[in-house]
Amino acid sequence: MTHNILNFEEINQEFINWFCSNGGTISSKIAFKDYSSENAGRGVVAIDNIQPFEVLFNIPHSIVLSEKTSSLKDLIAISEFERLREINSWFPLILCMMYESQKENSLWRPYFNILPREFDTPMFWNEGDLAELEGTGVIDKIGKADAEKQFNEHLLPIIQSNSSIFDLKMHNLELFHCMGSLVMANAFQDKIPKKKIKENEDKEDEEDEEDEKDDVTMMPMADMLNHKTGFNNARLYCDKGLLEMIAIKEIKKDEQIYNTYGELCSADLLRKYGFVDEDNVHDIVELNGQFVVDTISIDEDTKDRKIEMLLEDDLLDDIFVLDTTYEISPELIITAKIMRMDKVQFNKLQKSKKFPDPKMNLDIKQPLIQLFEKRLAMYKTSIKVRK
Fold first, then answer.
1. Which residues pair with 234 in a beta bridge?
2. Which of 273, 300, 329 finishes a domain?
3. What is the DSSP string of 191-220?
4. What is the pLDDT, as a whole number, of residue 283?
5. Which residues have CB under 8 Å from 114's CB, separation 6+?
6. Least confident range of 147-156, 167-176, 378-387
7. Which residue has the higher pLDDT, 199 or 162?
8. H or E, element range at 284
9. At 36, is the pLDDT very low, low, confident or very high (cuts 50, 70, 90)?
10. I need a surface site. Which of 63, 140, 183, 320 has the fewest CB within 10 A?
11. What is the pLDDT at residue 137?
């Protein structure tokens, strides 16, 4: 046990020394903490009270890992990166990370040492565990087979044709999945707002989108902050070319410091990061459009014509979403009403081209309840959360 603690602290200190020696600064009010007992891994904690707008740390651009800063840019033709970017915007960064992570004298060696090497995302689950996700829609979005296909078709040829740079014993599919998972979980691909913080304001100025940065990069230190829905208390900003993590509200001593990964539902949190929040106001249930019309339709003869009409007017979605507001979208109500029409009613609709009112009524209430019950039955397992 002592060895693990020492190892954790040694890795932390090595990373901090590297970060600061390369121009980064870290507030004396924060520190790394092992949250593995809470199934959260490494995180950042306040070791003193922090006031709003205090800078927690800043990151020099020189240690932001991207295709522009990786030494691989000097070894691989620019056209190769451009071709990869057209296929997938992540691929150039993933290839650079595959290279840098295995390079003994890489600038980012201490950074890779502190990054996770095992992942809890469904990409790495076995078939038995994946079966627990039946009904969630997560399985269809994992994309493992497609990722492997793209690796074999696009990255592997570059690796094979540059044998003096890459070694297939190391730079292989397993490493690709590892680096891809790090990019999914750690890369900053959302826009970084320009620093314009005012007193009593914890949000960026939404009118300054033209001043925002939207490259896909790995940002040492910024990605050490965990996420918990509703607990965001820090935000990354760009100020005169400097990247700064800033407290957006008061943080008390011993509180964990949280960045936000976005307003994500549990399915996306699990798929991208390998965890879920028990209380998540952003949770949703997805209703496949085809499932909706197949379940609610009462007349096969007019079914296809109804679907065509709904599609022409953008009323039938590929996916209908139910969220925690418990409100049913007007599009779903109209779709349900039309699919429940008999031939006479539908013929009148075609002539008048006047769509039903998007308000709930008794005629459509029961069919929708049956639809939701059928959707609920798709979940093969459940968990009761004790409050």
1. 247
2. 273
3. -B-B----TT--S--TT-GGG-B---BB-T
4. 94
5. 11, 12, 14, 15, 42, 224
6. 378-387
7. 162
8. strand 284-288
9. confident
10. 140
11. 83
What is the pLDDT averaged over residues 173-193?
89
The pLDDT assigned to 214 comes to: 58
Whether 263 and 230 have beta carbons less than 8 Å apart is answered as no
- According to DSSP, the residues that pair with 226 across neighbouring strands are 258
Owning domain of residue 181:
71-186
Decide: 30 and 253 in contact? Cβ < 8 Å. Answer: no
pTM of the model: 0.85
Residue 381 lies in a domain: no
Strand 242-247 to 55-59 pairing: antiparallel
Hey, what are 32's tokens? 């790394």
- With residues binned 3-state (H G I as helix, E B as strand, rest as coil), the percentages for the chain, rounded to 5, are 45, 15, 45
Q: Are residues 56 and 203 in the same domain?
A: yes
Spatial distance between the Cα atoms of 55 and 249, rounded to a whole number of angstroms: 12
| Same domain as 203, residue 60 | yes
Please give the structure tokens belonging to residue 187: 């890369």
Helix then strand count (H, E) for the chain reads 15, 8
3-state secondary structure of 371: helix
Read off the tokens for 55.
């800078």
The three-class DSSP label of residue 328 is coil
Tell me the chain's radius of gyration from C-alpha atoms.
25
DSSP code of residue 155: I
CA torsion through residues 329, 332, 335, 336, sign = negative
User: Is pLDDT above 70 for 2?
Assistant: no
Q: Return the C-alpha torsion angle 244, 249, 226, 135, nearest 10.
A: -130
Domain C-terminal end among 164, 186, 208: 186
